[in-house]
Amino acid sequence: DYKIPLHFFNAQRVALEELDALYEDLKKTDPAAAEQMKEARMLYRDMAEAHADRSEGVIARFKAAQCSIEMGELPEAQADLKLLEGTGYEALGVLGQAKIRQKEGKGKEMWAVLLQGMEKHRGDPARLELRAMANGVLEQAERESPAAARDLYMQMLTVPGLMPHETAQVCADFLRMSAVAGPDKVRQEAM
């Protein structure tokens, strides 16, 4: 299961610590408790409305969408994510859309959303979270289907605006995966 750390919003995170703790406790203690999750979502929405003009409110709106995704109430999540448009936090909306596709079991659509988000939100700090989710997909693909992982790595390399260190990491991972097939395969892939 993928957890979304909000390390890139350190200053704003202080205001959300209690709500984050409540959300994490609910997930650990009783993941099937929809009423408790709904309460957490309501608290996030209250925070979002109380601070609608501040980043804390926008992040709380994103967390409300996360609660909806966890509960499987995807139209509710879509509604919350739509409110992120025009806020300067659109990359979080893309991350939420990818999580929705994941919840729906639409892996190819999720991958496409991640790649498009990485391209569109090049300078956004949330791009790190998009990249982390994409890395999780790549790791899972490597375990389940090396051929599919190879294709995903090739797609990742076509994303415009990959930073040099990202490109180097994707190439290194791709060649590492190819090394399992032997030196000839590594040479072939490197060409």
How would the blueprint of this fold be written?
Elements (H helix, E strand, L loop, with lengths): L9 H20 L4 H17 L4 H17 L2 H9 L7 H15 L2 H14 L6 H18 L1 H12 L6 H16 L3 H8 L1
Helix pairs in contact: 1-2, 1-3, 2-3, 3-4, 3-5, 4-5, 5-6, 6-7, 7-8, 8-9, 9-10
Search tags:
191 residues; globular; mainly alpha
Order of H and E elements: HHHHHHHHHH
The general outline is: globular
The SS-based structural class is mainly alpha
* Cα-atom radius of gyration: 18 Å
Average pLDDT: 81
What is the CA–CA distance across the termini? 35 Å
**How many beta-strand runs?**
0
Q: How many strands, which pairing sense, and closed or not: the largest β-sheet?
A: none
| Helix content, binned percent | over 70%
Number of H/I helices: 10
- State which percent range the strand residues make up: under 5%
Low-confidence stretches: 1-16
Please provide a written account of the structure:
It is a single chain. The chain is globular, with a radius of gyration of 18 Å. With 191 residues, the protein is mainly alpha-helical. The chain contains 10 helices and no strands. Mean pLDDT is 81; it is low at 1-16. The protein has helices at 10-29, 34-50, 55-71, 74-82, 90-104, 107-120, 127-144, 146-157, 164-179, 183-190.
